[in-house]
Amino acid sequence: MPIIKYPRATEPLWHEWDRKAQKRGLRHTVYAANGDQYTGEWLDNLKHGKGTQIWKRTGAIYSGDWKFGKRDGHGSYSIPDPITKEYKKVYTGWWKNDKKCGYGVTFYLSGERYEGEWSRGLRSGWGRMYYRDGSMYEGQWLEDRPSGQGMLRLPNENRYEGGWKDGKKHGPGKFFYLNTGQLLEGIWAEDTPKSGTLIDFGRDKAPAPTQYPIPKV
């Protein structure tokens, strides 16, 4: 009976070449075809671990943690000033799946600043926002807008404490007119007080009290 010999299955050479080309561990700077560059750790040809990425088109820099090719963990993101070309930090904090997630601080080009929680790249959770005009909001956020309970302090120290929805005063709240020594307590809807009670509050210490006190009911 004749003996039939079957050829041994051989793996294509490119499989071996591909395994050898896979980047693992710490590497020197690797340049992409578009000019972007990355220096840091790799796993199975993906950025994984600690590393720094520079985007050629914008000049932006991210330095921090990576996970399977995406920013994930703690890191900072900076961009060059269009005039001085010096790098300015835009965000430092936590990331997940390439988006801001967890606690972090953002510095806006307008000079404003946000300190607080993020979710999927949007301000969500508890946070404090410092606005350009000197106002400050502290409280709950949802999808980049004040929503829930929070306090807005104005440059003249007047403040609102109460409910918010979609970035506007909404629900029960109190507005302290500290400049005149009055307090409005009531219900707001889309930034407008719908009903409430106005009383004197610290009128004796107010810098510009009303001419006549509000009669007590």
From TrEMBL:
Domain of life the protein comes from: Eukaryota
Compartment(s) where it occurs, according to its Swiss-Prot or TrEMBL record: Cytoplasmic vesicle, Secretory vesicle, Acrosome
Entry GO CC: acrosomal vesicle
Keywords: Cytoplasmic vesicle, Repeat
Any Pfam family the entry gives: MORN
Task performed by this protein: Assembles a suppression complex (suppresome) by tethering SIRT1 and MDM2 to regulate composite modifications of p53/TP53. Confers both deacetylation-mediated functional inactivation, by SIRT1, and ubiquitination-dependent degradation, by MDM2, of p53/TP53, promoting a proliferative and cell survival behaviors. May play a role in the regulation of spermatogenesis.
Protein name: MORN repeat-containing protein 3
Organism of origin: Corythaeola cristata (Great blue turaco)
Taxon lineage: Eukaryota, Metazoa, Chordata, Craniata, Vertebrata
